[in-house]
């Protein structure tokens, strides 16, 4: 129950931050920082704003947040949303090559199995293969 409540609260804060013109103007621009978290003050003000809404408006915002999450997941499955950080994947490719390949590909496919075989037989070729996959050379 606590997990569901936390997810719903996160979705609500996300929708409130995205739909509030005051908070949207105070957020850093996408060109400056692509992956930043909002300031704690803006999150608390968004939560307070959400709590002051009527019940119908809250339901519509929750519905909108669920719709946005569904679109995001569909984009991620289709490969249109890039969430992984290349530097972290490169470090992971050196330490655990098959895991880096799996995180980059998002599924267990032939590249993943090749990475496991190369890593188990010979460590260095497994690392090289994982780095090639992470940097989209293969």
Automatic annotation (TrEMBL):
Q: What is this protein called?
A: YqaE/Pmp3 family membrane protein
Query: Per the annotation, which location comes first and is thus the protein's main one?
Result: membrane
Hey, which family's this protein in? Answer: Belongs to the UPF0057 (PMP3) family.
Where does the protein end up? Membrane
Signal sequence coordinates: 1-24
Q: Which residues form a coiled coil?
A: 55-82
What keywords are annotated for this sequence in UniProt? Coiled coil, Membrane, Signal, Transmembrane, Transmembrane helix
Q: Which InterPro entries match?
A: PMP3 (IPR000612)
Recorded source organism is Niastella soli
| Keyword RNA-binding in annotation | no
Transmembrane regions listed in the UniProt entry: 86-103, 112-135
């Amino acid at each position: 129950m606590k997990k569901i409540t936390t997810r719903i609260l996160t979705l609500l804060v996300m929708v409130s931050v995205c739909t509030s013109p005051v908070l949207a103007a105070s957020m850093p621009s996408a060109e400056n920082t692509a992956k930043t978290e909002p300031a704690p003050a803006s999150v608390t003000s968004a939560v307070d704003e959400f709590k002051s809404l009527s019940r119908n408006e809250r339901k519509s915002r929750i519905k909108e947040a669920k719709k946005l999450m569904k679109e995001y997941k569909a984009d991620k499955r289709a490969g249109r949303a890039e969430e992984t950080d290349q530097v972290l994947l490169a470090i992971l490719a050196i330490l655990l090559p098959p895991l880096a390949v799996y995180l980059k590909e998002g599924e267990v496919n032939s590249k993943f199995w090749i990475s496991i075989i190369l890593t188990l037989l010979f460590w260095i070729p497994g690392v090289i293969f994982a780095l090639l996959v992470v940097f989209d050379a293969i």
